[in-house]
Amino acid sequence: MTKIALLDYGMGNLHSASKALSAVGAEVSITNDPKIIRAADKIVFPGVGAMRDCMAQMREQGIDKVVQEAVFNKPVMAICVGMQALFTESLEFEHTQCLDIVSGQVKKFEPNWTDEQGAAIKIPHMGWNTISGMERSHSLWRGIDEHAHFYFVHSYYCAPEDTSVTAAVCDYGQPFCASIIKDNLFATQFHPEKSHKDGLQLLKNFVEWQI
Length: 211
Prior knowledge:
With 211 residues, this protein is of the alpha/beta class. It has one domain (2-208): Class I glutamine amidotransferase (GATase) domain (Rossmann fold), CATH 3.40.50. It is built from six helices and 13 strands. The chain has a nine-stranded mixed β-sheet with strand order 2-1-3-4-13-12-11-8-9, with helices on both faces. Strands 6-5-7-10 form a four-stranded mixed β-sheet. Helix 1 (14-23) links the parallel strand 1 (3-7) and strand 2. The longest helix is centred in the last third of the chain and has 13 residues, at 196-208. It starts with a strand and ends with a helix. It holds the Pfam family GATase. Keywords: Amino-acid biosynthesis, Cytoplasm, Glutamine amidotransferase, Glycosyltransferase, Histidine biosynthesis, Hydrolase, Lyase, Transferase.
């Protein structure tokens, strides 16, 4: 059974993520203990809330160093604010320095963006939306249909400098990066643990992902 360390730094949706990962066959430890994290087969890095608070909590508990170490030696999945924390900086609160594992910025949705009917988008982007542009041959997308629906809750989006790391896009006024894959790092802006069948399939694919 794959051992997953679900990182606990006070800012993640741990219960839902733990339950979903367990449902697809993982042995889950909710932890901030570096020894347990290093012993795990894979890491899931969740996050909710304001980026400045998340980064402060990460640094206080040493989770920032654990993640920076782990991305070089085992599969890591980051979710929502966890994905945003991987980038160089967030423009939330004007400027928040992040982990700089993926070059790029986290930007706020522009209120002048409009939907297909010409109405201004609502911020935050909350609820179900489709993703597209996945590389169908990649094992992480096995069993996920093009234009599958996932659950989003966010006011900021990731803009990688190297667009080749973009693994899926979502349209909310304009297309934005909804997922990245970079070597053994996988991240989603949406919440697979809240996305029913497709979300569970995606988590299952991560649990079974062979690097």
